[in-house]
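To the structural biology subgroup,

Please find below the input and predicted structure for AU RNA binding protein/enoyl-CoA hydratase, which we are adding to the shared reference set this quarter. The sequence is reproduced verbatim from the submission form. If anyone notices a discrepancy with their own records, reply to this email rather than editing the shared folder directly, so we keep one authoritative version.
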Amino acid sequence: MGLVETKLAIIPGAGGTQRLPRVIGASLAKELIFAARIVDGKEACRLGLVNHSVEQNDTGDAAYLHALELAREINPQGPIAVKMAKLAINQGIEYLYGCVVLKVIPTKDRLEGLAAFKEKRRPNFKGE
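Predicted structure (tokenized):
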């Protein structure tokens, strides 16, 4: 993967010049963009461009299987809380934190999560 537009005498589009520095820092982003460097999965993981890099398996679905593991880890969590956390992360914590907290507090899922924690059992979230 890489932002190689400088090879064409243009700059990365779709916010690449803004997003990449936020993820890996301005200095490293400049190096990768200016040099039009392409990195493999292991290097992308080391730089923090991706969360995981997996070796391909014989059936060609290693990335899919890893993603499925992650989905199974996320799935039992409170759906409204996950949705609001995603919104807060994507839109900026400072701006939205108060808004998303106000949407999570009155939910039945929040009460169920607290009760399950207190009772030392797995929660049964319903997205309500």
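Summary notes: The first helix runs from residue 16 to 24. The chain has two domains: 5-73, 76-118.

Regards,
Lab coordination
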